[in-house]
Amino acid sequence: MKQENKHTESCNCNQGTLSVEEITSVVDAVVKETGTGKDKVIQVLQKVQKRLNYLPSEALKYICRVTEITPGQISGVSTFYSQFRHIPSGKHTIKICSGTACHVKGSELIADAFRRGLKISEEKNSSPDNLFSIEEVACLGCCTLAPVVQIDEKTYGHVKPTQVKEIVTDFLQSVSKKSKKKEEPEQESYDAEVRIGLGSCCVAGGSRDILGKLLDIREYYELNINVKPVGCVGVCNQTPLLEIVSGDKVSSRYTNVRKDQVEEIILKHIQPKSFDKKLKFRINNIADTFLSDDMVYSPVNLPTDTREKTLNNFLSKQLHIATLNGGVMRPDSYDEYELLGGYNALKTVLTENNPAGVISLITASGLRGRGGAGFLTGKKWEISSAMKEKPKYVVCNGDEGDPGAFMDRMILESFPFRIIEGMLIAGFATGADRGIFYIRDEYPLAVSRVKNALRICKEKGIVGNNIKGSGFSFSIEVFEGAGAFVCGEETALIASLEGKRGTPHLRPPYPAVKGYKGYPTLVNNVETLSLVPWIINNGSAEFNDIGTEKSKGTKVFALAGKVARGGLIEVPMGTTIRDIVEKIGHGVLEGRTFKAVQIGGPSGGCIPERLADTAVDYEELNRLGAMMGSGGMVVLDDTDCMVDMAKYFLEFTHKQSCGKCTYCRVGTKHMLDILTRLTQGKATIAELDELEQLCLDIKKGSLCGLGKTAPNPVITGLRYFREEYEAHTRGICPSKRCRDLVKYSISDKCTGCTKCAQDCPVDAIPFTPYEKHVIDYSLCTKCDNCRVVCPENAIELVYEKDENQN
Predict the structure, then answer these.
(1) Are 552 and 544 in contact (CB under 8 A)?
(2) 554-729: which CATH number, 1.50.10.140, 3.10.20.600, 1.20.1070.10, 3.40.50.10330?
(3) Does residue 806 register a pLDDT over 50?
């Protein structure tokens, strides 16, 4: 038996046991593909885990034997990045988003519901049948659909705690179906073009089903239409969005389209050629009108102004530069990008052959880095260009780890050719010859679209040696991050590229001087690079005329949270927060009150409604205690607790801290302890002063931006919402959000319908038809199911303190 154990690794993922021979065979194949260098450790671990389900100890040992990777390195890296697993998991991974937008909409309750429904315990993170495992992730980048759950690569939005069985069943059914891609017929003219968005939010909203229905309708009715999948349409809250552009260029748009409405919508605009099929549809349509009320409220029967009013309001205050041609262009079409002016900027700079002139143009435009710090892009390029050592690198930072942010994901998914063009121009201007896309692994669609775009660019001669005969050569590769928020900081990102733990280091030297592998490395954010081609094409003066005195151009924001109309927006710098929330986002939901906006992710701050007339500007936001960040903007209403929000962000930053600085590692833990005690009603007034002092000490003593900005949510909370913090010291959460301070109660509105009893997962509500129900508090887990399903709104939240006194 002992001899047998030497040759097997236990696995609980329905794959039986793994023999040493199987493990070594997989590792050998991976190493042959990736190479044996120490800098390849992350790629090796990613590929081995993908094939073996996890990282067996035997695999780690064997990797060290056949590569240059050391045991210390592989141990340090595999335990640092959240992506890597050292124990087996289920066949399918359920990723539950715990980003800011999902948190304020109850992601914690969703996670609890899935664990209960699938009987997944803390000891063994997989269901009894080893089919599912659960993983809570910082952000899935579908914030407008919060709460969001992703099973493998299928995403579900607006999830409720009561939908576990429904979602699992739907996923298993979808896995068993095999979709066959229908080829697009090649021809020069069409009667109409039908556009359907296929960004991540669109897909989660059901756009793939709509696309399938469109193709079926086109085939059945023999319609001469061009069905065109496009990138992000921006109005993520109203997907699926269908746009029909007629032959005479008249556009008609339909939002929140259901699969059963597609046929009616299409045939309103495009007539079938066959008389029989046209007649059959009209007869069925007339019958439906009499048999169903749905026809009365169908989008087809609404006037255009009424149908598109909300959409027009959402778009009216925006200015598209980084997101130019959004919802119009196919993300995978090089020819269409070129037809719409793509690569004109690159051709211009290559023809003029004046790198210094390009840098001067970017400097004159006033463009600042869109990754958060707002450093002048032209200045950064100038520093990099002065370095003569080769090779020289340009890195596109797509490690968008901020919970509540999805700008970079959308731009990478929808405009990959634009980012490539921006990177090529940056490389030409600074004298670089190599480029790297660093994209977080949680964005599989972005990764695949960038890789596909690079493949096409190489075929077209846009990437590679002697580009378009100019003498300029530039190669580009894609690196997938392994899950570490701190890698958004450029020195930590470079450490990750080198196969190390993502630990920041002191600057100077700056990466532009000494970066990847010790060579000059220019690191620019996705959005920054996306703006470069427009500036080259239109001139620095035109870009400089947009925005405020010190913040030029536009800014892309992910508008999410408790806003009525969330989505991906691009507005001129200087637009007020109130205009964004109320005019573009249509305010908060009816019956609720706009309370605050959290800007800048975990490093930002909460700005109260009374200061919402503040302009979006780097300096103005910093003055209020927030920051621009990468562009996450989460709207909060009167049901959100500011202490709970601060605790949520401190949990995130403490977990994501690399641990190098004592102030960050220990200080954030101490802050988190106080905030946790506040949410439990156990902290004292004196601890608020201690909390405030900790904030100041951590800001002063931390090494990198993560630690220096981690206290911001707490600082702004104490500055603008101190009364809420003080209330918690008395055991009161004014928003009734903190679960330890409230309990569920059934009011006299109860009719005894038993819905709450039927949906209670722990039988805390006895089944007593037609009688007022009661809750057994010794069993209640505060899962919220009863409140969600109650048709009479009879479930109320009351303070534990008041109940105990009674």
Answers:
(1) yes
(2) 3.10.20.600
(3) no
pLDDT digits (tens, 9 = 90+) for 614-654: 999 999 999 999 888 878 899 999 999 999 999 999 998 88
Amino acid at 301: N
Name the CA dihedral angle for 636, 638, 640, 646, rounded to a multiple of 10 degrees. Answer: 80
CA of 473: how far to CAs of 105, 431, 466, 479, 755, in Å? 49, 10, 5, 20, 67
Q: Rounded to the nearest 5 degrees, what angle is found at the Cα of 145, between the Cα atoms of 141 and 146? A: 85
Cα–Cα nearest to 359, from 373, 380, 375: 380
List, in sequence order, the alpha helices (H) in 551-684: 577-578, 618-623, 642-656, 662, 668-679
Query: In angstroms, rounded to a whole number, what is the distance separating the alpha carbons of residues 620 and 613?
Result: 11
Backbone angles phi, psi at 256, to 5 degrees: 50, 45
For 398, which DSSP code? E
Number of residues assigned to the chain: 806
Whole-angstrom distance, CA of residue 46 vs CA of residue 42:
6
pTM of the model: 0.89
**Contact by Cβ (8 Å): 422, 381:** no
Query: Looking at domain 334-542, does it have CATH number 3.30.413.10?
Result: no
- The CATH class of the 92-176 domain is alpha beta
Q: Give the range among 3-12, 201-210, 259-268, 750-759 with minimum mean pLDDT.
A: 3-12
Percentage of the residues of the chain whose pLDDT score is greater than 90? 64
CATH domain 741-805 topology: Alpha-Beta Plaits (3.30.70)
Domain with CATH 3.40.50.11540 in the chain: 334-542
The domain made up of 192-303 is a member of CATH 3.40.30.10: yes
SS3 at position 135: strand
Domain with CATH 3.40.30.10 in the chain: 92-176, 192-303
Return the ∠ at Cα 568 (arms to 200 and 638), rounded to 5°: 105
In the predicted structure, residue 126 carries a pLDDT above the cut 90: no
